[in-house]
Amino acid sequence: MTADIECRDYRNFPNDTCVFMRTTSDCKLEEGFINYLTFLFCTIGDKLLPLGLTILAAWLFVLFIGLGVTADSYFCPALRVIARVLKLSENIAGVTFLAFGNGAPDIFSAIAAVSSAKGGDVGLAFGALFGAGVFVTTVVAGTICLVTPFRSIQRPLLRDIIFFIIASFAAYVAMYDGKIYLYESLGFIIMYVVYLIVLIGGYFVNRRIKDRRALIQAAHTEAAAKTYGSIQTPEETTVSVDNINIPDESYAQPDVSFALSLRHAFLPRDDMPWAERGKISKFFSIFKMPVSLLLHFTVPLVDYDKPEHNWNKLLNSFHLLSGPLIVSFLTQLGFIKIKNVFPIWAVVGIVGTILCFAMLILTEHHSKPRYHSGFAFLGFTVSVVWIYSVANEIVNLLTTFGIVFDISNTILGLTFLAWGNSLSDYVSNVVSARQGYPNMGISACYGGPLLNFLMGLGLPFTYVTLKTGAPYAIDKSLLQNVIAYFLFGSLAGTLLFIPLNKFFYSRRFGIVLIAFYVAFLALAILIETHIIG
């Protein structure tokens, strides 16, 4: 097949679709483990295409679950431990490490979409980043308004919205001429650094103001005490602790049989008892069990909230073998042969086995070693590779669906990819509002997508422009312009209305936000189906 034929032209070759998929260069999916197009049209076949699409849809759902579980249960905890090891303050760690951890699915999906883009078609990346921004700032924020009408904090909200407006306008300008230059992509990263400086600087200024107010209040109290006499306080009562049983903080496991110890070591355990779960929770737990087991056996988890920081001698020793080995396979570096004879994965396996047995010999079962926090760095590395690999597969799957159903990458990005990556934001932010913390939820509706937006555009395009030494040419489309307009509109509308409404997020405003998203989605579909434009 000639190189200028697109994969979407497979309908013109109904008699030899499999050959077309195997021989057309545009049908080769980059950086993935499975070519889903050849799976559909060669392994499954045209006659059973609906069955193949059903299998791929289920697999896509599993991948989204895996992406979320890896980010929430392994990547973010590893970042928290690393932040403590580096002795970062809670505020700095929150706006850097933890914010990056929460936005990992969006950022890595954008990197994967740009890396696998062909002919400048980065619609999947743009659609996901802009689409997620519109979804979170309208649907998620609107749902919070419907659940709990509230009066929001002022300065942090205005800061995040203004920065987001500047970022969205800068992105529109960058893609307006059809090329993204190195200075433009670096500008997104610099903008995030400036945002961090403003955020951290504001934190210290506010703390200093509060400390000064506390000193003034203390001085007034002392002056009042001298004027009217010392304040009589009731005699302090003492509590005897002789009869109180204080639990021993040292952690010790009871003696168990070898089989039971292996079960405790290698099977993941959940904090919520099975009997207390609802039907949906039980179904979801069963569905994600294979993913949980795979991550449990390959990614070490250090957790300061658990006894001995979650030290597990047998499992953590095994991680020294399984972690590096899975990294070598997922990055495909393990298949490179040294002097065309010895594969790298075999070297990694030998070294990992030695380290595994050394750990078994040199450590104790019930007390963590001094270097246990180092496992957080291993867990961080392995979880990053897992997230990027899963993101690549998701991008390839969505590309496959786009080719089969003749849907543009932009519409796939602003719908399925944006929804999948934003689902955890929706749940966590709405739950925060239900629990009485609506300000926390609404702040995450702007601060979180802002980070994803800046880093999701800055990192991949900086990499490709540095790699090629030239501006990155992109395909422009009406749909990309529309989603940029709607993101800008949702942010500008909120910035204008909320101060006029005395920073009160009402149910009526929530309905308006959700209706705005419905109008956005309807217009996007009309453009995609060529009814408009």
Automatic annotation (TrEMBL):
Residues 57-200, 376-525 form the Sodium/calcium exchanger membrane region domain. It comes from the Eukaryota. One of its GO terms (cellular component) is membrane. Pfam families: Na_Ca_ex. The chain crosses the membrane at residues 48-71, 92-114, 126-150, 157-175, 181-205, 314-336, 342-362, 374-391, 397-419, 440-466, 478-498, 510-532. InterPro entries: CaCA_antiporter, NaCa_Exmemb, NCX_ion-bd_dom_sf. It is found in: Membrane. Its main location: membrane. GO terms for molecular function: calcium:sodium antiporter activity. It is a multi-pass membrane protein. Gene3D superfamilies: NCX, central ion-binding region (1.20.1420.30). Keywords: Antiport, Calcium, Calcium transport, Ion transport, Membrane, Transmembrane, Transmembrane helix, Transport. One of its GO terms (biological process) is intracellular calcium ion homeostasis. This is Sodium/calcium exchanger membrane region domain-containing protein. It comes from Adineta steineri.
